[in-house]
Amino acid sequence: MQLLSERVWRHTIVLFTRGDWLGDTNIEQHIETQGKALQWLVEKCGNRYHVLNTENRADSTQVTELLEKIEEMVAGHGGCHYEMDRKLLQEVEEKRRAVEERAKQRLMKVQEQRKTLRSFKGEEHHLSELRIVLLGGRCAGKSSAGNTILGREEFDTVIRTAQCVKRQGEVAGRQLTVIDTPGWWRSYSVQDAPELDKQEIVHSVSLCSPGPHALFLVIDVNKSFTETHRRAVEEHLELFSERVWRHTIVLFTRGDWLGDTSIEQRIEAGGKALQWLVEKCGNRYHVLNNEKRGDGTQVRELLEKIEEMVAGHGGCHYEMDRMLLQEVEEKRRAVEERAKQRLMKVQKQRKTLRTLFHGEEHHLSELRIVLLGGDVLGRVQQETPSWAERSLSLEEELHSV
Ligand SMILES: Nc1nc2c(ncn2[C@@H]2O[C@H](COP(=O)(O)OP(=O)(O)OP(=O)(O)O)[C@@H](O)[C@H]2O)c(=O)[nH]1
Ligand SMILES: [Mg+2]
C-alpha cells in the first residue's frame, strides 16, 4: 500500500470475499477473533469494511450497500477522490515505458537472430533425432516440462526427481530423448549441494550419448530471480564446463502465470540477474505452459529453436570433457559399491540380532520413541513425509530470508 503513498489509506475499504464461509459468524466477530494484524488493518482503513459473498451474485443488496459505503466515505472527504502524487505516477509510468521499449528491442533482436539461424538451417530442415537434458532448481517444473515436450505423462511430478530419468518418444516427426535431473536449491551455493545430486546432474549427459543437442535451464517465470539464484545457476552449470552455455536455452515454465505480460517484459522487469542469464544463454529462451499440454505449437516452436541453435553451431551437439565425465562416473560407481556394502552389512547385522536375541516372532507390546532432528525441515519430514519434498520450497524461502 505504501507504493501508493500514505494518503491511500483514507480512501481504502477492506473488502472481505468468500462471505459464505462465515456461516453463522458475523464479520465483526471474525475481525475480533482473527487477532491484532487484521484489527490493525481495519483500523488503518478508518473502520471501513464490507463482506461480499462472491458465490451469490443474485444478491444485489450486498453491492448496493457497498456503493453506499463508498459514497459515505467520499462525503466524509468533502467529495474528494484519491489522487496519486503526480511525480510518483510519472516515475512509474516512465519505468513501465522503458521496460516496454527494452522488451520490444529484445524481441526484435531475437527475431533477427532466429532469422539468420534459420537461413543456416533452411526452413524445412528438421533433425531426425534430438537429445535434451532438463536442468534447474527444485520444483521449477522440469518433469512437467518433460511431459509437455513428450506429450504424455512420462515423468513423475508428484514426488521430487532424485535421480536422472531417461524417456524417449516421437514428437513432430523427430525422435526425442529427454533426460530429467534432480533440481538444486535455488538459494544454495554448489558447495552446499548434496554430492549425490551433483553427480546425478553431470551423469545426465552420459545418458544421452554422444551428448545432448540442448540443455534446458528451467526457470519458474513466476518466482523472483535474484543475484543469489543467478550464482547458484552459474555454479551448477560450471559442473559441466564453460562450453555448456553455448548449448543452453532458458526454459521458462508456468507461462500461464504471465497473463497478458510478454516474456520479454518479464525479462526486462525481472532485474539484472535474469537479464544476465538470458544473455549468457545467447538470448535463447522459450516459455512453456505445462498446464496446456494439448498445445502442440509451444513444443514445435521449442524444437525449432533447438534446431536453429544446433545449426548455428554447425550441427554440433554438446560434448562433455571425457576425463571429467569419467571422474564423475567413477565417483558414482564408488558410491554405489559402498552403498551396496553398507546395505549388506546392515542386513547381516539385523539377521544376527534377530536370531540371537528375539527370535523372528517376538514383538514388544509397547515401544517408546523420541524424534530428533534439525529445524523446520526435519520436523516436517517426520510428521508428514508426503509433504516433505514440497515443503522444501518453504525451507528454501526461509534460507533466502
Ligand atoms: N500452473 C502451472 N503449474 C506448473 C507448471 N509447470 C509445473 N507446474 C507445477 O509445479 C509443480 C512442480 O512441478 P515439477 O514438474 O514436479 O517440478 P520439478 O522441477 O520436476 O520438481 P523436482 O523434481 O522436485 O525438482 C507441480 O505441481 C506442477 O504441476 C506450469 O507451467 N503451470
Ligand atoms: Mg521433477
From TrEMBL:
Residues 127-327 form the AIG1-type G domain. Keywords: Coiled coil, GTP-binding, Nucleotide-binding. Residues 82-109, 325-356 form a coiled coil. Belongs to the TRAFAC class TrmE-Era-EngA-EngB-Septin-like GTPase superfamily. AIG1/Toc34/Toc159-like paraseptin GTPase family. IAN subfamily. It comes from the Eukaryota. Pfam families: AIG1. This is AIG1-type G domain-containing protein. Gene3D superfamilies: P-loop containing nucleotide triphosphate hydrolases. GO terms for molecular function: GTP binding.
